[in-house]
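Project standup — Tuesday

K.O.: blocked on the structure for the chain from last sprint. Re-posting the sequence here as requested.
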Amino acid sequence: MGDQATNRSVRRPAVRLIRLALLAGVLTATLVLTGCSEQSQHDWKNLAMPDPASEQGEHIFTLWRWSWVAALITGGIVWGLMFWAMWRYRRKPGDPEVPIQTRYNLPLEIFYTIAPVVMVIVFFVHTVDTQNAVLDDSGEPDHTVYVVGQQWQWTFNYVDEAAVESPNVWEAGTASYIPTLVLPVGETTEFQLRSPDVIHDFGVPAFLMRMDVIPGRENHYRITPTTIGDYSGKCYELCGVYHSRMLFKVKVVSAEDFDTYLQGLEDAGHTSDQPLVGGSNASTQQGLPDEVVSE
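H.V.: unblocked you, prediction finished:
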C-alpha cells in the first residue's frame, strides 16, 4: 500500500506538468495565429505555397498539401510515442540504478523497416503522377512563346499567332526595362526555353512551375492560366553578377485583350522573321557564337 501511494504521489505532478505544457502550447499557438496578418494567415493555410493560378499548379499544390498532411501525421505519431515512452517508462522510486535493457523487439523493428518503405513508395507514385500531369505535352498548344534568357534579361517571342501578320512579335527586356509576358486566360501556352550563354531558370511563382534554361538544350513546358491578374516572374538560378535583373512581369488577360496586345506589338514595330535571341544590350560569353539580334 505504501509503495502504491508513493507511486501515485509521484505520478500526479508529472501528469499535471504534461497537462500544463499542452495547455501552454495551445494558448501560444492561438495567440500566434490570431496575431498574424491576413497574408500570414493565408500562408499558414496554404503551408507557405501561393494560390495556384494555373491548371498545372493545381496538381503541384495538391501534392504539396497532402505531403504536409502525411508528414504532420507521421510527426505526430512519432512525437506522441516518444513522449509516451518517456512518461510511461520514467524512473520511479525503488527502480534499479540501471533499467532493464531490451536487446531488440522484432515486431517493432519490422514495422520501422516496412513503414518508411511504404511511405517512400506512396510518395514516389504520387510524385510521378503529378510530374506526368504537369509535363504533359500531348496535342497542340493554343500559343507558343519562345523565352530567351540572356545576360541579363528576358526576351519573349510570340510565334505563329493568328492575331498578327508577322511570324514573330516580341517583347525584350533591357538593363533598365523589365519586360511583360502577356498570356490569355484559359488557353494553353507552350514556353520554348532557350539561352545563348548561361544557365537560367524560368518560372512564375503563382503558376507553381519553373524549369532550367540551358544553353544548347531545348527545354519546354506548358501553362494554362486560370485567373486573370498581374503576377511576377523571375530567374530561380543564380546565373551571374546581374542575376537580380532577371525579373519580368506577367499579365493574364482575356483572349480579346491578348490579341489586342499582340497587335500593339506589331504596330510598334516589334516584329522579325525569326525569334529574337536578346535585346539591344544583351551579350553572350566570350568564345560562344554571337546569336544576339539587336532591337
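K.O.: great, moving the ticket to review. Confidence is low (pLDDT under 50) at residues 284-295. The longest strand covers residues 143-150.
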